[in-house]
Design goal:
288 residues; transmembrane helix; six-stranded mixed sheet; Collagenase (Catalytic Domain); alpha/beta; 7 helices; transmembrane; two-stranded antiparallel sheet
Length: 288
Amino acid sequence: MTSSSPYDPPAEPRPPRLDFDRPPAHPGTAPVRPGLRRMRRRRRRTVLLAVALLVAGAGAAGVTRLAGPDLLGRHPLAADPSLANGTGAGSGSEPRGYPTAGTGSFAAADGRSPVRGDDGPLRRYRVEVERDTGQDVDEFAATVDAVLGDPRSWIASGELRVQRVPEAEAADFTIYLATPATSEGMCAEGGLSTERYTSCRLPGRVVINLARWMEAVPDYGAPLEVYRTYVINHEVGHEFGELHQACPGPGAPAPVMQQQTYGLDGCVANAWPYVDGVRYSGEPTDGV
């Protein structure tokens, strides 16, 4: 129910209706204006042309019945099963064969890696992948092992070592591969907003967004493997105490702690914290 105002002014008189589609009340007593004849002829031609086009299009598509209201889009787009389920082209709900939301349940990789690095404290990590995402947990773990054990990664400092372990109680931190919806919820627990787009790190928890793992980001300018290496080193770098850094200048390699997911700012893609055996970095920024 809607409320009414205490005072409704009287309606103003309406001007006489000019209905050019209605013939005179007494044919022959009022001549039809030449302009009206031309307008009627144009309208008839337009209607006939539209009908002819619809019939031709229907015949080409193999449609045998034309229903006026249906031509105006009586049924919503969601009536198309591919669009309703988020699998149609351009829908974005299930892009390129991977889910955007999952069960929130994870499978952990078995086994342990060798200890990588020459000296320093040992940082143990565990690897988990969200179930039913089409991603193999052992394959993901092997990629993480290869990145963190590379001599261009964080162990190049000579001040820490890394090892993957299967037991949760033995791990200093866990690296998760999660769907955009699940990763958003996990990151939000620490007050971080990812808009289902970025990855994040919380104390003891590195969360890699599956969408970024599968697609990287537009205009990154490097193969997917480079972005994957970058995102592991970047988020694990936060776990090791590193803060965000800025691009040193146009054409320079992007520091691994630069937020390359949001753009390179004139730098070129770079996935490693050490370049030519030297720690490569930029000026610190306010972000973490």
